[in-house]
Amino acid sequence: MPMLSDPPLAVVDPDIASLIQQEERRETHKIRLIASENYVSRAVLEASGSVLTNKYSEGYSGKRYYEGQQLIDQVETLACDRVKALFGVDHVNVQPYSGSPANLAVYLAFCEPGDSIMGMGLPFGGHLTHGWNVSITGRYFQSHPYGLRPSDHRIDFDQVRALAKEHRPRLIWCGLSAYPRVVDFGEFRAIADEVGAILCADIAHIAGLVAGGVHPSPVKVAQVITTTTHKTLRGPRGGMIMCDEEHAKAIDKAVFPGVQGGPHNHTTAAIAVAAREASQPEFKAYARRIVDNAKALAEGLLGRGFDLITGGTDNHLLLVDLTRKSISGRPAARALDAAGIVCNCNAIPFDPRKPFDPSGIRVGTAAVSSRGMGKDEMARLAAWIDQAVASPTDSALLARIAGEVQELCASFPPPGIVVG
Ligand code: DSN
After folding, report:
1. Per-residue CA distances from 193 to 205, 241, 386 (Å)
2. pLDDT value at residue 1
3. N or C: which end of the chain has fewer CB within 10 A?
4. Is position 70 within any domain?
């Protein structure tokens, strides 16, 4: 019987092969400042592009519905053991396809439709799945969003406590997508305990900082912790839910069969690899570099007259208020992209502008730190950002900056990519 022909991607689908190659170049030649993005290692890429994608494995290690799980069970057990050791948790479920399904499973584990829940409002840096009205989580539950203090743009714990006492939520979310300061998990837990709520910390943005010891950990403070695996943690696109033993069964049942079918085993393997990488001493240095770089970039921007929400940062991101620069977020982000510096426009707290063209940009240092960039490069970056934002329609200037950016990038090749 002749073997099926099995040519490589470039032969089977030159269109997709070419787009992937172009994306490799884009990721190599531009500076990636999107706070939720990173570069995974070659090892993580290899695991996530492996034959494990071929296998169905509904269930959990040792208790599956299909045969042939001898190796998959080992993969998932390794992933779980490594994550448990990395974060110091009793239990982890590594099957959620990403952050949103992980969060949905938490609702299923603890809430009934119509229950009261609380999370940070989206315009203040909360996530859609923390009960925002356009998300299923805001439609199927009574959501009472909290926000930031107008005076200093820090979490308004007086408001959190008042809302919690008024609405007696079943579940309180803490964790943000655009908050540049340390989250006080203990204060959230105190409020959750006062009203008998479950506290879930969504550490998607800061998981790598927690693992690297440069942000306080919510472990043993929040009963449940969700995260994506691909931001500061430098894993594949995926999600996880961590909890104490008491809630393990409820969480597992909610992920499968509650929200999902078969896990993505190639992703599970890549999470295992990322957890191994994150448990090495170098990862602690990496996490420290992320924060040091964010502080250096903050200093550089403040020195050039930029306003930063809360005046600086404790973590991997900065929220830049462009109001005094007489430009809104969208044209600024577009000009920066043309200059080879990729970030996203972002609402600032109490933003008078619409979400599609808000007053700010959000920048983060996880990806530049993965390339090995440091304080000197952050100073150059601040200068380029200043020039591009000051002259967003000067295409010659933007092209000149893009050239300089590319030159700098050549000295800091990103992990995982070999440009042909
Ligand atoms: N899209 C992610 C972020 O950029 O923060 C959150 O889901």
Report:
1. 25, 21, 46
2. 59
3. N
4. yes
